[in-house]
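I have been asked to look over a protein record a colleague put together. This is what I was given:
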Amino acid sequence: MSCCSPDNSCSTSTAARDEKTAGVTTVYKVQGMTCGHCETAVTKEVSAIAGVTGVTVDVATGLVTVTTTDEPDDALIGAAVDEAGYELTCRAENLSAR
């Protein structure tokens, strides 16, 4: 299989790849996570939201990093975290205001 498209442009171009993977990254504070099961549950629920392209959970700090194609819907992400059994308390940039 060729890496070139019908218009003779190369599909392995890093610019094209970066453009497709670029998105909005938002960090949330989540309470109640204590173990690998917590990480898996939150990752599964948040990843199921349309437009979410990546989820990273840090149980030790309680931070969940979500990458989306557009500005994230905090209510949807909060509902997904709730469905997993945890509580989204705020966006991480809001932590200093507390």
